[in-house]
């Protein structure tokens, strides 16, 4: 048994070497080349709804809807990565922020909500982000002093509290939910976009039956947010997070205001979560408390860790797998979560640093494994 | 907010709460044992409980007591319950053992950080959850009403039935048994030693791996017993019952002091009672929130729990 | 030097691949309601819970619709109609995705369903906007007809009749003095419970809300016992009602149990235990299947091996209306809509003529009370009209 595991590990290591080789060669490419490849890739992503790539099309569901789901999940993963990967705080109740953002937009913007204000989407969303950030701070303030495991359970509890609140309170219309969540705009496609397969001029940009507009909006937001987080990572804030993650006491001793930065991580993570919620539910047009079960929250954490916590591309990959695979392999629809659970166990044993690890993480885990071997 | 209702029904809510709490306490033991020794939140424990509930129905159905069957005489019922406790205990203990072997041991050998342990625990929980769901087609499974509740006596206007007394007494008995085991036997000493300092315990001749296996099995057996009590009380099980009970049991464990066996009992009973009071005052639908709010409050103001931690090391 | 060349070729190849793929891209099947489907090959969809705790209700409806479609296909073998099944598990959150997939399939002209009121609330606007014809055989919430969904039709009475009918049955026939009302916060359950509360008025002593998928009702049982109610009205589905009633009776509760159509299924009796469910009263704006016209009950039994369930007959009628429209040559959504709007005819359950808002004529509505007797649900009598 151990021999099989060892040979599997060696095979995986050779793959890792190949990937690392690729990564080094990428870093060595001249700047101009890298930009053009990236540009081409971005164009490819925007063009995906119109391309007919046979192997990756999803059988039962509209492919563009799946793309949109992937984009929203990537946004969630980027936000969760800030909390888990960058600041090292385990948050199992992230879906609470998702819910707060979505409900704020629904309550303020829908004609069917108990509060009949009906602001347009572009006004609701910044308010939603602000409200979610405040809730992140409220959650973080008392709890960030707790140990890792306890923090996890408390965040889990908060996620549930928000869900039960949504289920039972009048302002969210309980389980019956709010229909008519506002869409980003009521505009229609102009004539010059007609050449794109799937777009007919004159039809609404953001409609339930044709999701291309939503997908492009989500994709754009994903790029903006990823760039933003990358800049943060390389700034003083990011370095403080790194210090906190590696050894909080040492960081504190060196003068890093750990509590403040942890709170910042929570707030930023919350903001991104709220934004994704607002985005997703404006496509769904309907929101009710059932969309916010704890299970999804836990799956998101798993996706982030499997993809590679701390590495934005890694968590994006994890999120895409989470969103895409169940839709692609619908024949196994009933077993998809089972497969996911087993995959989690397997991944943590063989590749705990994730599929696309951040280099620091990989080194850290290797060091620990060596320590472990000594203690046996 | 209905305080009148609380006042009028204080005693009955208390009794209902104690009954519920007894079940939480038994499940909490599993969490507290594993966390006290390994510093690991065993997410899969909730599914260990759930599997126990199903095994109970299978055993009963196998003996001819399916849904709607009439209960045999008193001795027959007691026999069925005893049999179920043994079977469910074995099944739950066995499941816990498998989870430890497959999911946790390899990680321990690699000295993985606790985040990875947690992820693996989540994976194990999801896998078991889905496996049972797929096997049972996600349909709930009923069982016969074995115990016909009869009011034994009345205190302060609250009717206390034989079912409630039975559940509370059984839980207390099992807890007492476990307590004696941990504190008075040699194996129990091994458990306490490993909880305090695994490396030194190993140096002193304690077989660390075997002790760890033991605590998983013990926790599983307690959950199995709890699952039988749950089945008798609720009369229905489905693949998703584990999740909520698991979270509440963990809350109970933390409430009482993680790693502390008596704390698990206290935490469980307290949680059950407060939950029911909350349901009385705020309405049924807020019952779960009460549990979570309690958790948050306890962790904020007394993270070591009400009775403090005893099994394991002092909190870092 | 060679490396740069390799990269240049790679980049050109990538761009070429993109352009080629875009050029070969076929037209998206974007949703639109006005494409002319071929005269044959039309489809109708069933939308409801085929899995999950309340699956039996959806299965009964699906089977009723399927019987109609199968009979039609046998009689019209050259131009068959396909029944597409969309399983929502009764969950409104899944409804929007499913509704979207229906509108995007241009061949689906009409829907038998959605089965539950919660999912209807979500799915109807999406379906109606793209012109898909909706005939629900079971969703009873009155608000559905007021949402402005132009293609909505309801093949049975709604809770504005069922609720008061039920309450009057409780007051006049059962003569209850103190009622305890429970609802499950769902669109259907809360709506019906509110209607009942309104008509019962002061007879209601207190009320409570339960959660979906709740299995442990200890606190609720205590609450009911201490309220001294002599009857319980349950606004919800059998998935929660069955374990509740079992626990309630086990705890010695003696109050009479009354519920609406969401509880009316054999699975309720089985789940609660025949002894516990004995004497429970269930109402339904549906005719007892044995009283349905024609050979429906026998045909259903022959096709599925089971007795017809709640709303099987209504689903049969709903499907037949759609099928008659397709047979008459209405092969687009608009034409089918016009047909159904103007339809008059006799089904196995009642006579159909849809009003402006999609409801059937109130005089054609009958609310029936059923009783659980000897482990089976039998028809009792028609509920008094308000």
UniProtKB/TrEMBL annotation, chain A:
The keyword Transmembrane helix belongs to this UniProt entry's keyword annotation: yes
A Pfam family recorded for this sequence: BPD_transp_2
Keyword annotations of the record: Cell membrane, Membrane, Transmembrane, Transmembrane helix
Bilayer disposition of the protein: Multi-pass membrane protein
Compartmental location: Cell membrane
InterPro entries, A to Z: ABC_transp_permease, LivM-like
Membrane-traversing stretches: 31-51, 63-86, 92-109, 121-141, 205-229, 263-282, 294-325, 337-356
PANTHER family tied to this protein: HIGH-AFFINITY BRANCHED-CHAIN AMINO ACID TRANSPORT PROTEIN BRAE, HIGH-AFFINITY BRANCHED-CHAIN AMINO ACID TRANSPORT SYSTEM PERMEASE
Protein name: High-affinity branched-chain amino acid ABC transporter (LivM)
Originating species: Paractinoplanes deccanensis
UniProtKB/TrEMBL annotation, chain B:
Assigned keywords, A-Z: Amino-acid transport, Cell inner membrane, Cell membrane, Membrane, Transmembrane, Transmembrane helix, Transport
Annotated coiled-coil segments of the chain: none
TM region(s), chain numbering: 20-41, 48-69, 75-99, 111-135, 155-182, 211-230, 236-256, 263-283, 289-308
Membrane topology classification: Multi-pass membrane protein
Cell compartments where the protein resides: Cell membrane
InterPro entries membership: ABC_transp_permease, BCAA_transport_permease
Source taxon at top rank: Bacteria
PANTHER family: BRANCHED-CHAIN AMINO ACID TRANSPORT SYSTEM PERMEASE PROTEIN LIVH, HIGH-AFFINITY BRANCHED-CHAIN AMINO ACID TRANSPORT SYSTEM PERMEASE PROTEIN LIVH
Family recorded in the similarity comment: Belongs to the binding-protein-dependent transport system permease family. LivHM subfamily.
Stated name of the protein: Branched-chain amino acid ABC transporter permease
Organism: Paractinoplanes deccanensis
From TrEMBL, chain C:
PROSITE patterns referenced in this protein's UniProt entry, alphabetically: PROKAR_LIPOPROTEIN
Transport as UniProt keyword: yes
Cleavable signal peptide: 1-25
Species: Paractinoplanes deccanensis
Family: Belongs to the leucine-binding protein family.
Protein name per the record: Branched chain amino acid ABC transporter substrate-binding protein
Ranges of residues in domain Leucine-binding protein: 43-351
UniProt keyword annotations, A-Z: Amino-acid transport, Signal, Transport
Source superkingdom: Bacteria
Keyword Signal in record: yes
Record Pfam families: Peripla_BP_6
